[in-house]
Structure formats: structure tokens, C-alpha cells
């Protein structure tokens, strides 16, 4: 008799437990929760863009980044797995400033997804020239591959890039315009606060010359009154003569810190540091957490 009752009671209890879990999850789950398959897939070139896009789209977007963390966009070779992910994306946010990866691979990326819309995130920015690609008489940038591609290293540029990203997201997903707008405005406010913090904290700094291995920081130095002296240019190893010139400049300007990006070898920087009795400091222009990373960069430049 007891066994018969148990056979009836146990299934009923199981059904009640399952029903309770379902009801509980329905009540307490966020109305904004988005299933993975419902997210808007968007692709972009480099890790800093991931934060720009995700801060606007949050859980409503899935971001595919072509150049992974730690890789160098000047030399990175695209992986088939990443191309497969991009083939599902209706939007690609290119940096659009002549980034070598994009110059080398955008045609290939487009070929796997011909219907994908490619958006220039740098639209409206004022480019500065690469030392090797500009009109010597006037200093004009005539094409994107003549520009310094590292536009995102200035928070002021990022504000423009974020606006460009926002405008395309609301075209692709107009139903969530208010959601994207709110997030965009919050992020731009944080970028403005970062800009103000940089201005305030470098206000008393007299020596504004910084020695870098690769010239990644041209837009930062332009916007905040610094000057970068580069050891390496154009992806080429520095010659003995150019190293000697850099050492002379560094001594003349009393430079005691050399900044190196983790994507590059520090061999030459270490040699120069030995000649100058200087310190080699790693700073990453391609770090994924943009706001956090720029505070690290600020502290490093303050000590230079």
C-alpha cells in the first residue's frame, strides 16, 4: 500500500518542483535578458573596439574581434575560425584609419560575407600623417594608408568613433534605439571624464617628450601636448645610426623611461635603456579594457 502511494506521490512532487522552478525563473529573470541566438552579431578589427561596441550594445550584441589580444595588427594573419564567425555578421566596424590589418585583409573578409555592411568607425576624424607617408610641403594626409592608424589612442577620437558605432547599431536594430542611446550617452560621459582627468593630471608636467619603441601614441600626444620620439618606424628594425640618434635625443631631453608595446620585441629598447640608464615600461595600445587601460597609460606618461 505504501509503495503504491509512493509511486503516485513521487511523480507528482517532481512535476511540482519542475513547475516551481519554471515559475520562479519566469518571475525573477530580467526582462532584458537576450538569448544568445537573438543577439546582433557584429565584427570589428581590434580589441579596444570591443569595449566601444559592448558599452553601447551590452547584452544585445555579440562582438567578434579579428585581431586577438596580444597580436600585432601590422603582422597578424587572419584565422579561418574567425572568418567563419564573421560570415554570420551583418555589420563590420573597421577602424578605417589605414590599419595594416584592414588594408591587407578587408577584401578577404568581405568575400566571406558579401552582404555585410562595412562601417568606417573613424568617419569625421582629423587624421595625422605617418612620418613616411605625407606631403612634405604641406603635411596633408591624402589617403587613409598615409595616416597614422592609431586613432583610438585619444579618448577624444573615441567619442567620435562611439557615435559612429551607435548610428549604425540603431539602423541595424531600430527597436532598441533608446537602449543603445542611453548606453552610448553614459559611455561618452565616461570618456569626457577621462579626457578631463588627463588634462588635470598632466597640467603641471614640464617635460612632454616621451620615448616609445613603436609610434602608437601620435593622437594622444597631439591632443594632450606631448611629443613622441620613436625608435622603430614603418615596422622596420632601427639601424645603428637611428639608434644612435635616438640615444642622443633622449639624453638631450633627459628621458629616463622607454615605452614598449607588448606586441613588439623589447631587445632594442633594452639596449637603449642600458645606454641611458633608463627604465623600460610596457604600455599596451591594444588592451581590451579601454578606459581602465588609458588610466594606466596616463600614470605611465606622468612619470616619464
- CATH fold assignment of the largest domain: Rossmann fold
What spatial order of strands do you see in the largest sheet? 2-1-3-4
CATH superfamily of the largest domain: Nitrogenase molybdenum iron protein domain
Question: Any idea what the CATH architecture of the largest domain is?
Answer: 3-Layer(aba) Sandwich
Nearest-integer average pLDDT: 88
The CATH class assignment of the largest domain is Alpha Beta
Radius of gyration: 25 Å
Main beta sheet strand tally, sense and closure: 4 strands, parallel
Order of SSEs: HEHEHEHEHHEHEHEHEH
How many domains make up the 3D coordinates? 2
Distance between the termini: 85 Å
Number of helices: 10
Can you lay out the helices and strands and say which pair or pack?
Layout: H1 2-28, E1 40-44, H2 47-57, E2 61-65, H3 80-86, E3 91-94, H4 100-112, E4 117-120, H5 155-172, H6 177-201, E5 209-212, H7 218-224, E6 227-230, H8 240-252, E7 257-260, H9 267-276, E8 279-282, H10 290-302
Parallel strand pairs: 1-2, 1-3, 3-4, 5-6, 5-7, 7-8
Helix pairs in contact: 2-5, 2-6, 5-6, 6-10, 8-9
Amino acid at each position: 500500500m505504501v509503495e503504491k502511494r509512493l509511486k503516485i506521490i513521487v511523480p507528482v512532487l517532481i512535476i511540482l518542483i519542475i513547475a516551481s522552478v519554471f515559475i520562479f525563473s519566469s518571475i525573477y529573470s530580467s526582462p532584458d535578458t537576450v538569448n544568445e541566438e537573438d543577439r546582433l552579431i557584429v565584427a570589428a578589427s581590434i580589441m579596444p573596439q570591443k569595449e566601444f561596441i559592448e558599452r553601447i550594445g551590452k547584452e544585445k550584441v555579440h562582438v567578434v574581434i579579428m585581431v586577438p589580444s596580444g597580436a600585432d595588427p601590422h603582422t597578424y594573419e587572419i584565422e579561418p575560425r574567425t572568418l567563419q564567425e564573421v560570415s554570420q555578421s551583418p555589420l563590420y566596424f573597421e577602424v578605417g584609419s589605414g590599419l595594416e590589418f584592414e588594408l591587407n585583409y578587408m577584401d578577404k573578409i568581405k568575400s566571406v560575407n558579401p552582404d555585410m555592411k562595412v562601417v568606417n568607425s573613424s568617419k569625421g576624424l582629423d587624421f595625422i600623417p605617418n612620418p613616411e607617408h605625407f606631403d612634405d610641403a604641406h603635411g596633408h594626409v591624402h589617403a587613409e594608408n598615409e595616416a597614422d592608424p592609431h586613432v583610438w589612442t585619444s579618448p577624444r577620437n573615441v567619442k567620435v568613433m562611439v557615435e559612429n558605432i551607435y548610428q549604425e547599431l540603431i539602423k541595424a536594430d531600430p527597436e532598441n534605439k533608446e537602449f543603445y542611446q542611453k548606453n552610448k550617452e553614459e559611455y561618452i560621459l565616461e570618456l569626457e571624464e577621462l579626457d578631463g582627468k588627463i588634462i588635470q593630471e598632466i597640467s603641471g608636467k614640464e617635460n612632454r617628450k616621451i620615448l616609445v619603441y613603436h609610434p602608437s601614441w601620435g593622437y594622444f600626444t597631439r591632443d594632450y601636448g606631448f611629443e613622441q620620439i620613436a625608435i622603430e618606424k614603418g615596422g622596420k628594425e632601427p639601424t645603428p645610426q637611428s639608434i644612435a640618434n635616438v640615444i642622443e635625443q633622449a639624453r638631450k631631453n633627459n628621458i629616463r623611461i622607454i615605452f614598449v608595446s607588448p606586441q613588439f620585441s623589447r631587445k632594442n629598447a633594452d639596449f637603449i635603456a642600458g645606454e641611458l640608464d633608463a627604465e623600460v615600461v610596457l604600455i599596451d595600445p591594444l588592451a581590451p579594457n579601454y578606459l581602465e587601460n588609458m588610466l594606466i597609460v596616463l600614470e605611465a606618461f606622468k612619470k616619464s
